[in-house]
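Figure 3 (text version): structure tokens given as input.
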């Protein structure tokens, strides 16, 4: 992977009125990588995206696109950016092809070959000469993707891209995004509330809360895990864990126990010899949602254990 970032957010702060909406945010995005941008409502995602697309100026800090600062080289840096909005503006009475031709005219550098190339990249070859009004939502989203790719951006921003798509449509869209990141070396930035979707679509997840970047995580398929045990009597079990200095979480019916697998048999043996009754002892994987809620303080892990 090229180590020079395509996008560099450097100590970005945005103050509106008296409110600090973005607080010293720094983030690097790389070629061929899909980064998810996740945060609770009002965290500052839209504000950050507006600054990355030159629609808003940071109060302090700088955004660089492919090495060019937006504040001093606006046109050149923006020529490297492609944006897909939630509902791409399309002429429904025209064919997909004519829509692309229309957008291509706005940019002298877009050739007919390039139009054909992006059509193939989003898999619309068979329907491209039909009117957009006959397209499914998924096809319209893909046409929006094709439009955003026409000028060969190095950086593509998608704000809530799969809104309204059914699971099959989401899966399909994800596949095309992955293909584009790999084939064109585009750095893709996806803002979404759909945690599971982000987890499947992205290589990395940046989490924002109260205008601050609180975490960047690689998505590598390895999930953190924990054990959950239902043990009785509960007070005695609690004292047992405390005596062993174990940081367990106490739920109504059981305990969440951070534990290495190798340590499980010895712990169970000790619990039994301490006259604790074990009704269940099971391994759980932390979902991205668990981790997200933990990070943002929106709740503890294992909400389901509260039942
Ligand atoms: N022009 C503005 N004037 C005052 N406050 C603003 C302005 N724009 C945004 N804010 C505030 O800044 C905070 C961040 O807003 P932003 O829209 O960036 O969040 P978000 O993460 O995109 O949220 P959501 O997921 O709800 O769209 C919010 O508290 C919002 O009310």
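Below: residues designed for each position.
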């Amino acid at each position: 992977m090229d180590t020079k970032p395509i996008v560099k957010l450097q100590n970005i702060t945005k103050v509106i009125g008296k409110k600090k909406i973005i607080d010293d945010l720094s983030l690097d995005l790389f070629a061929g990588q899909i980064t998810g941008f996740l945060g609770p409502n009002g965290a500052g995602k839209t504000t950050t995206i507006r600054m990355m697309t030159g629609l808003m100026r940071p109060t302090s800090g700088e955004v660089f696109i492919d090495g060019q600062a937006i504040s001093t080289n606006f046109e050149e840096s923006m020529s490297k950016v492609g944006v897909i909005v939630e509902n791409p503006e399309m002429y429904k009475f025209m064919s997909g092809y004519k829509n692309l031709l229309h957008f291509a005219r706005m940019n002298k550098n877009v050739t007919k070959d390039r139009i054909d190339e992006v059509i193939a990249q989003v898999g619309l070859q068979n329907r491209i000469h039909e009117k957009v009004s006959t397209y499914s939502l998924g096809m319209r989203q893909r046409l929006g993707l094709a439009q955003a790719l026409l000028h060969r951006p190095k950086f593509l921003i998608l704000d809530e891209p799969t809104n309204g798509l059914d699971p099959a449509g989401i899966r399909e869209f994800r596949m095309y995004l992955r293909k584009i990141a790999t084939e064109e070396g585009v750095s893709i930035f996806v803002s979404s509330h759909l945690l599971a979707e982000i987890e499947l679509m992205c290589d990395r997840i940046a989490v924002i809360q109260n205008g601050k970047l609180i975490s960047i995580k690689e998505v590598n398929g390895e999930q953190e895990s924990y054990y959950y045990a239902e043990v009785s009597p509960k007070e005695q079990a609690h004292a047992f864990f405390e005596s062993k200095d174990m940081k367990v979480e106490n739920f109504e019916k059981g305990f969440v126990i951070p534990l290495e697998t190798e340590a499980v048999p010895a712990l169970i043996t000790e619990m039994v010899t301490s006259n604790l009754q074990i009704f269940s002892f099971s391994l759980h994987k932390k979902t991205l949602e668990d981790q997200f809620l933990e990070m943002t303080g929106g709740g503890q892990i294992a909400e389901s254990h509260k039942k």
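The chain has ten helices and 14 strands.
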